[in-house]
Design a protein that fits this description.
Largest sheet: 7 strands, parallel
Protein name: SDR family oxidoreductase
Keywords: Oxidoreductase
Oligomer: single chain
Radius of gyration: 17 Å
GO molecular function: oxidoreductase activity, acting on the CH-OH group of donors, NAD or NADP as acceptor
Helix content: 40-55%
Organism: Candidatus Alectryocaccomicrobium excrementavium
GO biological process, one term: bile acid metabolic process
Structural class: alpha/beta
Shape: globular
Number of strands: 7
Strand content: 15-25%
Length: 239
Amino acid sequence: MEFSGKTAFITGVAHGIGRAIALQLARAGASLALADINARGLAETARLAQELGAQIVECPLDVTDEAAVRAAAQSAHDALGPIDILVNNAGVYDRACNFVDSRSEEWKRKISINILGTLYPTHAILPGMLERGYGRIVNIASVAGVYGIASMADYSMTKGAIIGFTHALAKEVTRRGVTVNAVSPGSIDVTGNPLPEHSFMGRAGTPEECANLVVFLASDRASYISGQNIQVDGCRKRM
């Protein structure tokens, strides 16, 4: 199988895109360290991945806690060996509102989860990748970070930061064998709301369609792709 002998650390796996990524990697033979603050959803994803034959370590984790992230990364390494693939999927959207009606506690929550929750795992796991001369990092951003979406100014800002981080980090580490890319989903149907008006395809995407791209970027088939942000948005038309 394509990922036999490889270990992936994935955040935000309790449902949706993160779960789809975990299950696709499990089917392809990867060992998985699965992280999420939602213990119930985490356990369900772990169960499904184990049924597919994957070796699993569950990491109940708040990605805004740097010490906890470092401890989880070390536990994953101790149990599964070196981490070859990092998928930073944990994120939060909360609610849409005009910026003047938003609250600073909402900004801080999004910054902590969406930005720091990407930086902390990357900072913990990247040194090992550089030491071995091999790694795949995939950050989950959003079309909000590309276009900026009205009534989502704070969320758009955090996802734009992830895209900028991806571009910059790739320039630092690609020559040392570590690729860094971002995937920016558009409207993805994880709640039964198809949102057909958002794309020229006339439908929302599925978590599995996002996972297809993430898993490709995590593979050796994508060995010459780094520093990119790729949109999965059905040809987006509504911002």
